[in-house]
Design a protein that fits this description.
mainly alpha
Length: 79
């Protein structure tokens, strides 16, 4: 199995010498290609999503704090 993988790599490598710099160059070319596929949000969308995250975080933090205080009260009451 391993030998067929080596043969395939040799077959795909047309020049016979795939240097480190060629691989790095190919990597960054791929990164650039992937970045062109990204659909970046508009400023308005970003502001709305940021506000939603902050609001949910505050609500969840408040809920956790109230639950913690309630648990602390019950534990102290039991003692």
């Amino acid at each position: 199995m391993e030998e067929t993988a080596k043969k395939d790599r040799r077959k795909n490598n047309k020049s016979g010498s795939d240097t480190f710099f060629d691989r790095v160059k190919a990597f960054w070319k791929g990164v650039k290609g992937e970045f062109t596929k990204i659909i970046w949000p508009s400023r308005e969308q970003l502001m709305k999503q940021t506000a939603a995250v902050l609001i949910v975080s505050v609500i969840l933090g408040t809920f956790i704090r109230v639950y913690d205080l309630l648990c602390q009260y019950v534990i102290n009451f039991i003692k």
